[in-house]
Amino acid sequence: MLVVLICIILLIILVSWAKVNPFLAFLLVSIAAGLMLGIPVNKVTSAVQKGMGDILGGLLIIICLGAMLGKLVATSGAAQKIAEVLVQAVGEKYIQWALVVAGFIIGIPLFYGIGFVLMVPLIFSVVYKYKLPAVFIGLPMIASLSVTHGFLPPHPSPSALVVLFHANMATTFVYGLLIALPTIVLAGPVFAQTLKRIPSQPLATFRAEEKPQEQLPSTFISFFTALLPVMLLMLTAFFPYLGIKNAGALKAMAFLGDPSIVMLIALIVATYTLGVKQGTSMSSIAASFTDAVKDIALILLIIAGSGAFKEVLTTGGVSNEIADQLKQFNMPPLVLGWVIAAIIRISLGSATVAGLTAAGIVSGLVTTGNVNPNLMVLSIGAGSLAFSHVNDSGFWLFKEYFNLSIKDTFRSWSMMESLVSVIGLAGVLIINLFVK
Questions:
Q1: Per-residue model confidence as pLDDT tens digits over 247-262
Q2: Alpha-carbon distances, residue 70 vs 188, 220, 271, 296 (angstroms)
Q3: What does the radius of gyration of the chain's CA atoms come to, in whole angstroms?
Q4: Where is the signal peptide (predicted)?
Q5: Is the pLDDT of residue 116 over 90?
Q6: Is the pTM of the predicted complex or chain greater than 0.70?
């Protein structure tokens, strides 16, 4: 734990005080952590490379295609059109709440990373058009995405925990929904009231010049294209419940439901509907795609660095050491699950690793019937979101897209995630009073 603490402090000092590039800072700290944790010298670099590969393997295609799609949605005027329609529907006064609802609906079937890169252009379009504070408007929508990621199946971590604890997927979803709604409100719009003065100049790649009305795509084309990934993923999520047993159809749907394939299909459709159909040449579209990837290159490197740090800590046995220490404490099972997940999350930065590690430790308590398995899924899910900071890729994704200082990212993103975690635990304990 001392090594983890030293490395996190070193990382903060290198990035914020010494102004070292975050990717280089992660490399230096990851290597130092590996050596201090006693990992053989010849395996430190292997752990660093594995961590980078593991995290980018799942995110590289999604983030790159998402950035291209976001760029096209912005430059074509589709984001402007969507923003105008939303404001006309609810009024500028309630636009933040409209975005929260949109984020929650989209967040249920969508992985967090995909939802983030898809919704950021919409957030920034509203921010630029109506000259609103970026963090104040954007954080509540991001909070809704985070809550659905941590609490609600079919997201990877809660779904895996449901299986591990032999919980009921539908019951867990209903309990999760009861907890998610007040959590989003409190950690989103209510908390965001304190963030209006945070200075932010969001990533320029999603900032497009305002177009005259006659040059904008139609309302249907704008919404359809921007939400196509959501619709495709929802279709694949509900497909198993249609009762179709044909092996070929199941394989085809599994292929088409892969997030990378979904994003590729969405980008191909958008290239036509928001590009070619609007009279834009393919060379101009290709140039905008190139610009989009250039703009997120550093973000990808930073995320890779965070993956390296996480892998080194995991290889060094940090999560197992934390688990062994916490077994000695006598506390209610639901609270214990939350504490274990929270400490591993804070130490390693990965919500998924924190959730699955905590599940392995407390699984005996669940199988003996001393605790509601559905609530244990949610308790660990809440703990796995606790205090995201410099060792979490989500921290850097938010910081770089919204172009914030580390201090303001702690003040906004890290505090929001901590509120989600604590409020989530409170919701679990309240429901536990009424169910057996």
A1: 888 888 888 878 788 8
A2: 23, 17, 11, 12
A3: 22
A4: none
A5: no
A6: yes
